[in-house]
Amino acid sequence: MDEWPPTLRKRYHHVRVLGQGAFGEVAVAVERATGRRVAVKRVFLRAGAEHAALREARALQAAAHPNVVALVEALSEGSQLYLVQELCSTDLSRLIAACYDPLPPQITKGLLRQLLLALDACHAAGVMHRDVKPSNLLISFEGLLKLADFGLARGMGPEGAAAQQDSVGCTSTAALAAAAAAAAGPGSVAASSGGGGGSESSGSGGGNPRPRAAVYEDAAAVAGRYSAAVATRWYRAPELLYGAQQYDGAAVDMWGAGMVFAELLGLAPLIPGSSDIGQLALMQQLLGSFSTLEWPELAQLPDWGKVLFEESSGVGLAALLPDAPEDGLDLLGHMLRYPPHGRPFAAAALAHPYFSNAPPPAGPREILQFSDAALSRHDHITQRLAALGS
After folding, report:
1. pLDDT at 388
2. How many domains does the chain have?
3. Which residue in 182, 202, 209 sits closest to 57, CA to CA?
4. Which of the following is catalytic: 91, 101, 120, 131?
5. For residue 1, is it within any domain?
6. What pTM does this model have?
7. Which parts of the chain have pLDDT scores under 50?
8. Which terminal residue of the chain has fewer beta carbons within 10 Å of its beta carbon, N or C?
9. Binding positions for ATP
10. Catalytic annotation on 248?
11. CA torsion angle for 128, 41, 188, 211 (degrees, to 10)?
12. Nearest Cα to 216, choosing from 172, 154, 143?
């Protein structure tokens, strides 16, 4: 691509654009020296965008793990920053859309296990993702689930992991390039081994029982104040819907993971509200009304009490997910508790009997085989329907 700087063109052959947005674009490329396919994310640096791009690069490096999409290298040219990341086969939203029958229980279990391993690595490093949803969960060519798109990631402050201040106040492109290269690691232009990430179609157990001292931190985390306008609505925790600016980032991510789990079980979003108020209403119809007796801090949230909802005991998760196993519903119920402090850490969720009970979680190879077959079948059916309609 002519717009790429010479250094990037020398190392990578541009194949095609994957997607474009206000931030810039993502393209598929091939590393000339190895033949490896990568995703190149080009970020247009504007006021405020520099900090976001730097946070993404640093968060990816801090949370490096087999289930987190890898940042390969970072470089800048003029007013543009390039993040080179591993390329994946597809994403979870496309896999779910391609399935006509419930996922085999071992596949659901294997995918959730890998998501929890990714979150455990993030939280242990003091990183909260804040946008956990199926389209941000990629599936690699080896069948590994990869948490991607760290554009909303932040360091966790007083409500999460304790850490020392490490400001992200780089405002010049040169300073950003140096910081991004440092985030990518030794050998970068301005590179690492190891995020956002790309999918072309667009680990192992245990964990830390609590977040340890943060590897990654930022100024907002030190102040303990964050934006509530994060996460896609259907996966947004109730404290965010009520405008919380001080919150437990790990608990926010666990709520999002619970919503992804429910979608794996039911092949549809569990609570598809059309507005924030609608989301809160549907949430209570399913899980029951909010209670300040159960969650005293609720009364202190900025938007609490602005809208009155009808009292509901909730129909319960089993009503919407009748085919889900009992142990899976129990784990899901813990992940979707209203009080943030009631939700388990990722490591605790991994220790739930759901994962040790039969069937065992599917491994990467089985997940890849299932994904390839489901997507191929879906493409075949779509082509047949298109032919019949023409």
Report:
1. 87
2. 1
3. 182
4. 131
5. no
6. 0.85
7. 159, 161-173, 175-176, 186-196, 202-217, 219, 221-223
8. C
9. 41
10. no
11. 10
12. 154
